[in-house]
């Protein structure tokens, strides 16, 4: 038998973090611990806030599945126990950690991966133009991700490009653009050297993208949760943004990565705000990705013990003490 422990945590951000439809001052997380034979596996879930998930709903879902989890449910069993989202993510990642410790292998070895550091973007949150430029000027990371909205989507990128002409840029609109404005904005982004535009239009209101010849790569985020949406986005986007909180953990994330590559899509691994415990399993997916966005800990005041190290965008391989 296993012992399940569910903990709700709150972590402060260094400064308010704003995207097109939300401003965050802190982040709430659920941490799952699974103890078996004197060994403890841990996993972290932030949930998918735009699908109504909260720290309470995530905790309640896990609690409702306690009997099955403690009785020995496998990662595959979780598909019939918990829906995709933060609850399954936390439990699935805890199971990977537990299995690794019980077997004496790392999760990397379990997946046949020779672990290498990955290079993450650093996110420039929405703010007034001067503040966005100042934030970008103070960075040393070689890759930046710029959050934009409908107010000034070109200027918000231009001010970052002016102070960081050397940086590789991607842009995240978080569903804030319109079909009418997209062609002009995408052309401007191409001129500014933007490599990829993430989720320009609202999810399920992006049919126009099937016939839009974009001058920059388009990435699916809110439009793509699990493998179920893959056929839909494959006709509209060139990049699949995989987040473990969306897929419900590493198991489904790896399935989505394989199927998306088979469908001819480039890959991106993303994250909700979280600690190194949430970024560690995402780094597994990052081994297969063209774009990596696991900078959550850089936006937080504190991180966990044995945290992953971030040096000019390069993210260290997680330590055994942290996860996996």
Report, as a whole number of angstroms, the end-to-end distance.
21 Å
**Measured on Cα atoms, how large is the radius of gyration?**
19 Å
Outline the low-pLDDT stretches.
none
| Spatial strand arrangement across the major sheet | 5-6-7-8-9-10-11-12
Biggest β-sheet: count, sense, barrel?
Answer: 8 strands, parallel
Q: How would you sum up the global shape?
A: globular
Strand content: 15-25%
Helicity range = 25-40%
Number of strands: 14
Q: Number of DSSP helices?
A: 11
Structural class: alpha/beta
Mean pLDDT comes to 96
String of helices and strands: EEEHHHHEEHEHEHEEHEHHEHEEE
Q: Oligomer, anyone?
A: single chain
Structure description:
- By secondary structure, this protein is an alpha/beta fold.
- The protein is 31% helix and 24% strand.
- The protein has 11 helices and 14 strands.
- It has helices at residues 55-64, 66-70, 86-103, 107-110, 129-137, 153-163, 182-191, 230-234, 244-247, 250-262, 276-286; strands at residues 3-19, 22-36, 39-45, 118-119, 122-124, 143-147, 168-172, 194-198, 217-220, 239-242, 266-269, 291-292, 310-311, 314-315.
- The strands form 3 sheets. Strands 5-6-7-8-9-10-11-12 form an 8-stranded parallel beta sheet. It has a 3-stranded antiparallel beta sheet with strand order 1-2-3. A 3-stranded antiparallel beta sheet has the order 4-14-13, with no helix packed on it.
- Strand 5, helix 5 (129-137) and strand 6 (143-147) form a beta-alpha-beta unit.
- The longest helix has 18 residues, at 86-103.
- The two termini are 21 Å apart.
- The mean pLDDT is 96.
């Amino acid at each position: 038998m296993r012992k399940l422990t569910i903990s709700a945590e709150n972590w402060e951000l260094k400064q308010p973090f704003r995207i097109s439809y939300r401003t965050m001052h802190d982040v709430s997380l659920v941490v799952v611990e699974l103890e078996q034979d004197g060994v403890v596996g841990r996993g972290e879930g932030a949930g998918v806030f735009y699908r109504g998930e909260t720290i309470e709903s995530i905790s309640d879902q896990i609690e409702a599945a306690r009997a099955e989890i403690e009785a020995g449910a496998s990662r595959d069993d979780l598909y019939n126990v918990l829906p995709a989202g933060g609850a399954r993510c936390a439990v699935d990642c805890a199971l990977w950690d537990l299995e690794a410790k019980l077997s004496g292998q790392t999760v990397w070895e379990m997946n046949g991966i020779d672990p290498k550091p990955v290079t993450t973007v650093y996110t420039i949150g929405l703010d007034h133009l001067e503040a966005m430029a100042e934030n970008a000027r103070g960075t040393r990371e070689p890759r930046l991700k710029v959050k934009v909205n409908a107010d000034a989507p070109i200027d918000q990128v231009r001010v970052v490009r002016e102070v960081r002409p050397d940086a590789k840029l991607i842009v995240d609109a978080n569903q804030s653009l319109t079909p009418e404005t997209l062609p002009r904005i995408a052309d401007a982004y191409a001129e500014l050297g933007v490599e990829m535009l993430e989720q320009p239009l609202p999810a399920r209101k992006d049919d126009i993208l099937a016939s839009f010849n974009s001058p920059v790569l388009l990435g699916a985020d809110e439009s793509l949760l699990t493998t179920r949406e893959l056929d839909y986005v494959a006709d509209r986007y060139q990049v699949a943004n995989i987040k473990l909180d969306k897929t419900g953990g590493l198991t489904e994330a790896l399935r989505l990565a394989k199927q998306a590559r088979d469908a001819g899509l480039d890959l991106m691994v993303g994250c909700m705000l979280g600690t190194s415990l949430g970024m560690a399993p995402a780094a597994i997916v990052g081994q297969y990705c063209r774009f990596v966005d696991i900078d959550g800990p850089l936006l937080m005041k504190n991180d966990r013990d044995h945290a992953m190290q971030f040096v000019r965008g390069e993210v260290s391989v997680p330590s055994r003490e942290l996860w996996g």
